[in-house]
TrEMBL record:
GO MF annotations, alphabetized: ATP binding; glutamate-tRNA ligase activity; tRNA binding; zinc ion binding
Catalytic activity: tRNA(Glu) + L-glutamate + ATP = L-glutamyl-tRNA(Glu) + AMP + diphosphate
Name by which UniProt lists this protein: Glutamate--tRNA ligase
Function: Catalyzes the attachment of glutamate to tRNA(Glu) in a two-step reaction: glutamate is first activated by ATP to form Glu-AMP and then transferred to the acceptor end of tRNA(Glu).
Segments forming domain Glutamyl/glutaminyl-tRNA synthetase class Ib catalytic: 2-312
HAMAP family per the UniProt record, alphabetical: Glu_tRNA_synth_type1 (MF_00022)
Gene: gltX
Keywords: Aminoacyl-tRNA synthetase, ATP-binding, Cytoplasm, Ligase, Nucleotide-binding, Protein biosynthesis
Length: 471
């Protein structure tokens, strides 16, 4: 059975890069009838952020990337937390000592800093401490770490399923720390131990971890465990081709949710960052992605995360993919947060249908059409100018609208066209001041559709306000 996983660290906002990697882990597991697991790598206590784990899991649920439970490996059933299994890692570090694949190192932080400055990195000097002496010093409680003992000389071969076989000179592989002096494992030890005990068969992660893979292959060899298949996905890039970061791009999944991006659209866009459909389609469901997925169609080029392209895709989902009723329902929290109200569900659906060609995110609906939901809508400078120019015309139009019985779009258009023709005016000379009065803007959907939606009472009330009278 294929088993995949993601292993985020709870050190801040749920990252769009985590979602990108999670998506392909989920897809590959589903493609093969396997399992997709989540592991929380929370051993870096200095960077640990309370509540970050819950936010990561909530973001995955919002995005529609469900994970599975797996075997109990020393803590509660998934998601797994490394901080709950410290004795497990300590036990495996001791096993490596017994097998001759690790050694205890007693340098102080000051000594390590001096070695780094002089040698450019740790030089493995603690390898020369006789094992009996090292064990005695450890029994006496002398602070120390446990390091990997990389075989030298030699080479370590790594097979990346997307890149082929790569050989690393062991002289270039450092004796990394496996267990810190506080008893917490480093990423390398915990990663390999957990992946093995969780039954992970396919490690799908970002290409930045490719440099760590020879260390992990050595650890698998040291324990006598089978090596999983590795797939290192291309990193998401900023428009300037640098690695995506919050300094240059929006990386928090919570930001995209708050801005009114649809999870289906964001998930679809993330899929396009690493994969292309055989027929060239850009809009597809998660189920269609699973069905069509092959590693041969994964590109290794650095995908650029383009916010404008995502906005375009989100707009496509709003206008063409989701049913009108669904868009209206999802827009409600954004409307309510903006202080908007609507008389009934029918009105809301008509308003959304009217505005749907004009907004790309749900948050834009109340921003672009406050006049459909509030009476205290703002006026643009151009709208104010047009309104002042057209006040005499509006004064004449108001009684005609008061007498109008048929409030449908066609009847309203006929009324205003007839009025303009009688006065020798172009329709725009009548419509634009009226548009400004009713919406506070000159950039709106059709005026007659807006008037029909607002209804006679609200139209007359707004005209009364701008004309300085009361209904």
């Amino acid at each position: 059975m294929v088993v995949t996983r993601i292993a985020p660290s709870p050190t801040g906002d749920p990252h769009v890069g985590t979602a990108y990697i999670a998506l392909f882990n989920h897809v590959w597991a589903r493609k093969n009838g396997g399992r997709f697991l989540v592991r929380i790598e929370d051993t870096d206590r200095a960077r640990y952020v309370p509540g970050a784990e819950a936010r990561i899991l909530a973001a995955l649920r919002w995005l529609g990337i469900p994970y599975d439970e797996g075997p109990d490996i020393g803590g509660p059933r998934g998601p797994y937390r490394q901080s709950e299994r410290l004795p497990l890692y300590q036990k495996h570090a001791e096993e490596l000592l017994k097998r001759g694949w690790a050694y205890r190192a007693f340098e102080t932080p000051e000594e390590l800093e001096r070695i780094r400055k002089e040698k450019g990195g740790y030089d493995g000097r603690a390898r020369n401490i006789p094992p009996e002496e090292a064990e005695e010093r450890a029994r006496r409680g002398e602070p120390h770490v446990i390091r990997l003992k990389v075989p030298r000389p030699g080479t370590t071969e790594v097979r990346d399923e997307l890149r082929g076989l790569v050989a690393y000179d062991n002289a270039e592989i450092p004796d990394v720390v496996l267990l810190k002096s506080d008893g917490y494992p480093t990423y390398h030890l915990a990663n390999v131990v957990d992946d093995h005990l969780m039954g992970v068969t396919d490690v799908i992660r970002a290409e930045e971890w490719l440099v760590s893979t020879p260390i992990h292959v050595l650890l698998y060899r040291a324990f006598g465990w089978p090596v999983p298949r590795f797939y290192h996905m291309p990193l998401l890039r900023n428009p300037d081709k640098t690695k995506i970061s919050k300094r240059k791009s929006h990386t928090s999944l919570e930001w995209y949710k708050a801005e009114g991006f649809l999870p289906e659209a964001l998930r679809n866009y993330l899929a396009l960052m690493g994969f292309s459909m055989p027929d060239g389609r850009e809009i597809f469901t998660l189920e269609e992605l699973v069905q069509a997925f092959t590693w041969e169609r994964v590109s290794l080029g650095g995908p650029v995360f383009d916010l404008e392209k995502l906005r375009w895709m989100n707009g496509k989902y709003i206008r063409e993919v989701l049913p009108l009723e669904e868009v209206a329902e999802r827009a409600k929290p954004f409307l309510e947060a903006a202080g908007c109200a609507w008389p009934d569900e029918a009105y809301l659906r008509r308003a959304v249908a009217l505005m749907r060609p004009r907004f790309d995110t749900l948050r834009e609906l109340p921003e672009k059409a406050p006049y459909l939901f509030r009476e205290d809508y703002p006026f643009s400078e151009k709208a104010q100018e047009k309104l002042q120019e057209g006040l005499p015309i509006l004064q004449e139009v108001r009684p005609l609208l008061e007498a109008q019985a048929d409030w449908g779009e066609t009847a309203l258009e006929a009324l205003l066209r007839g009025f303009a023709g009688e006065r020798g005016l172009k329709l725009g000379q009548v419509a634009q001041p009226l548009r400004a009065a009713l919406t506070g803007s000159l950039e709106t959907p059709g005026l007659f559709e807006i008037m029909a939606l607002l209804g006679k009472e609200r139209v007359l009330s707004r005209l009364a306000q701008v004309l300085g009278n009361r209904p």
